[in-house]
């Protein structure tokens, strides 16, 4: 039985016939995802006995600008095919990352984000948030903390923003109260939540402004949900949250840029409240 990465790659190839060199890379990506998912262009070139430029051309043959953008989707499909126990087993067979190595891995995630994110994506999300009556954030698990951080800072800027990170029944209540004037942001990363995708579809019945921050641009797509892919794959047991934090910080910065004085006035007001209640 073929793996999910193999099925996905086959769907991208469709009826086209690749060159012999590209076929060699495609076969390796399909048959050896455990090795290839976290390999560099150079490592894959050595494994398949082609030059690095051929590896990049393979990603382009599959419809991507280059290896970086392809690898985000490829790793997402690979990780989705694993159970939590398999993820732990995979990482436990590799030498554990030391503290500094872990930091360097997060730095690589930021570099991937910088190479793949489009400023227009940040602007579209910012425009939706600033023009909405309220913004609803839904997430679960590790990335709930990322959502909570964004909600707190958005509120400081005067944005009517609430987060729902607990029971699904409470999240359903929040979506049920959404109107066409609202924005809904689903944060569904790493071992993504199918229930959050269902909630996103439900939200789409209420408003056009529904965004999904997810693992993949072409995978896990649902009609009407704009997927914003972020690199969170990791050689560790746990995913990297750095790219998600950085992306949402960029959205907050864009909000400040767009709102100007009003954002600064809101921060000043909060500063007075902190002093009044001896928070600082």
Characterize the structure shown:
By secondary structure, the chain is α/β, with parallel strands linked by helices. Helices cover 59% and strands 9% of the residues. It has helices at 4-13, 20-31, 33-36, 41-48, 52-61, 67-80, 84-92, 99-116, 119-131, 144-156, 168-176, 194-204, 242-259, 261-276; strands at 135-139, 161-164, 183-188, 210-214, 226-229. Helix 11 runs parallel beside helix 12. The model is unreliable at 88-93 (pLDDT under 50).
Overview features:
280 residues; elongated; five-stranded parallel β-sheet; alpha/beta
How would you briefly describe this protein structure?
With 280 residues, the chain is α/β, with parallel strands linked by helices.
Based on CA inertia axes, which overall geometry fits?
A: elongated
User: What is the number of E strands?
Assistant: 5
Distance from N terminus to C terminus (CA atoms, Å) equals: 60 Å
Stretches with pLDDT under 50, minimum 5 residues: 88-93
Largest sheet: 5 strands, parallel
